[in-house]
Amino acid sequence: MKILVTDEVAEEALNLLKEKHEVTFEELRGDDLAREIGKYNALMVRSATKVTKDIIEKAENLKVIGRAGIGVDNIDVKAASEKGIYVVNSPTGTTRSVAELTFALMFALARKIHIADKTMKQGEWAKKKLKGIELLGKTLGLIGSGNIAQEVAKIANCLGMKVLVYSPHCTEEKARKMGAELKTIEEIFSQSDFISLHIPKTDETYHMIGEKLLSLMKPTAYLINVARGGVVDEEALYKFLKEGKIAGAAIDVYEKEPPEENPFASLDNVVLTPHIGASTKEGQVRAGIICAEQILKVLDGKEPDFWVNKGMMIK
User: Fold this and answer.
1) HEC profile for 22-47?
2) 207 flagged as catalytic
3) pLDDT tens-digit profile of 66-104?
4) What are the CB-based long-range contacts (under 8 Å, 24+) for 157-160?
5) Banded model confidence at residue 314, pLDDT cuts 50, 70, 90
6) Which among 21, 111, 207, 275 is annotated as catalytic?
């Protein structure tokens, strides 16, 4: 069968697909992808390719769309389901990568590493301005209780942090296994020293973190978003950061990527990264291989392990 790959994935994943099928790698987007998609039985993407309803409607022979990563907000899952096209992903491939970035950003905020780096490069010895805080004994609030949140909780427990968790899907038992206390989202925002987001972007989570919740945060608290752009109301967050109502934020994901204008760039209490949560060599190899395995299962007529639209399929 014919497989189209439109975003860069690990060579190991491509080789796995090539063992059984014909594979084409080409960075097609928009109308170009819509024109070509009819030739293919499978499509493999990361986050850059937007698999819209128009593209799916022209996918006459497509059996499966594979996302080498977790989030599928770049894929019209409903349109795919209506056409009987499987959507699969690799939710565990980059778990550790994203969790480690969470702490890299947390340490950067706690020790003002971004400011230290900037001032040193400007020839300033700003030692007296850079007193930070330790993570030991601090309270970390997690919004979400999936694979990444669980990994973050594990690391936080090793660092001697107190962990709180909120998720509509989290039970007391699951929280205990995470080494965390189950709280309401309001309690998370009012009690935490660091709040880390690990939720998908959906209609329900769009701008979920807005003025109401931000106003509950302690003025010494920090917000970290390595989840998805759009779950935070960026205008509200900018206002709270600029006015010093919260201590700072670290942002890896944005409502529009790349941002055309980024007001956060003018603030010293913000650490910015360009959606690199999953961007490690190890994570990309795992994500690519897992996604390739799921695609191969579908093409072999088998049920995939990570079937995003199971229950939504109309055949």
Assistant:
1) EEEECCCCHHHHHHHHHHCCEEEECC
2) no
3) 999 988 989 999 999 999 999 999 999 999 999 999 999
4) 159/103, 159/135, 160/135, 160/136
5) low
6) 275
100 noted as active-site residue: no
Q: Is 275 a catalytic residue?
A: yes
Q: Which of 19, 257, 282, 303 is catalytic?
A: 257
Domain with CATH 3.40.50.720 in the chain: 2-93+281-299, 95-272
Q: Which fold has domain 2-93+281-299?
A: Rossmann fold (3.40.50)
Q: Model's pTM, two decimal places?
A: 0.87
The SS3 of residue 296 is: helix
- What are the residues whose beta carbons fall under 8 Å from the beta carbon of 309, sequence distance 6 or more? 77, 80, 81, 86, 87
Q: Which fold has domain 95-272?
A: Rossmann fold (3.40.50)
Q: Which of 228, 234, 286, 293 is catalytic?
A: 228
124-175 pLDDT, tens digit per residue, is 999 999 999 999 999 999 999 999 999 999 999 999 999 999 999 999 999 9
User: Among all chains, which residue has been given the structure tokens 């939504």?
Assistant: 312
